[in-house]
Write a structure and sequence with these properties.
about 210 residues; alpha/beta; Rossmann fold; binds magnesium ion; binds zinc ion
């Protein structure tokens, strides 16, 4: 018997070693931190922030985009984790307030067939635009991709690292947190288990089952 029916997992900074969206802005969107700061302070929503930042991306060639996506590294134990949840028949879904384009390419790189929900990044002739197919007007955090409305199971586990996980973190039956999300949970008395890599998560799930 598993403790929960499903695992939902953040992408940037959780599955990937670094936040693939922020690193991309760092390279190609000058001044992206201006609106990032407003978002972290809660003055603008993540949707508003994403529209501003994607608008700053200029003159990125197809090769630059491809090379960038190729350079994104994932957690050393994520593939083991995918095998582990498969062997346990637990449903795994990626929920990301980042870009579908990056997620799709990285899953293809490793031949992974994992459902994902993310914002839609559209690339055309060096410029980008963004669409929000999973935006929910009544999301607590006004996230571009609202994670809390995507979860249907009664009992679920969530894994995440940051601000984009706040609308769902406190609702999870079992929460694995790292980096800023872990700090936030500690400060706000949200119960969670800390992880450094997916190896820790496999070990902890194994102990519980
Ligand atoms: Mg993240
Ligand atoms: Zn939400």
């Amino acid at each position: 018997m598993n403790m929960f029916d499903a695992i939902y997992c953040d992408f940037d900074g959780t599955i990937t070693k670094e936040d693939s969206v922020n690193s991309f802005f760092e390279l190609y969107a000058k001044n992206w931190m201006d609106s990032e700061k407003l978002w972290i302070e809660g003055k603008i929503s993540s949707k508003e922030n994403a529209i501003i930042q994607v608008g700053l991306l200029k003159n990125v060639s197809q090769k630059q985009l491809d090379d960038y996506i190729d350079s994104i590294e994932i957690d050393d134990y994520f593939l083991d984790f995918v095998d582990y949840v498969k062997s346990r028949n637990i449903k795994l879904t990626i929920l990301s307030d980042g870009f579908d384009l990056f997620i799709q390419k990285i899953l293809e790189r490793y031949n992974l067939d994992i459902p994902y929900y993310a914002n839609k990044l559209i690339y055309k002739n060096g410029d980008f635009s963004i669409e929000f197919p999973y935006y929910e007007e009544n999301c607590d955090k006004k996230a571009g991709m609202c994670k809390c409305h995507k979860v249907k199971e009664d009992k679920f586990c969530y894994i995440g690292d940051g601000v984009s996980d706040l609308c769902i973190a406190s609702k999870a039956d079992f929460l694995f947190a790292t980096k800023n999300l872990y700090k936030y949970c500690n400060e706000n008395n949200i119960k969670c288990s800390h992880f450094n890599s997916f190896r820790n998560i496999i070990d902890m799930l194994d102990m519980c089952n």
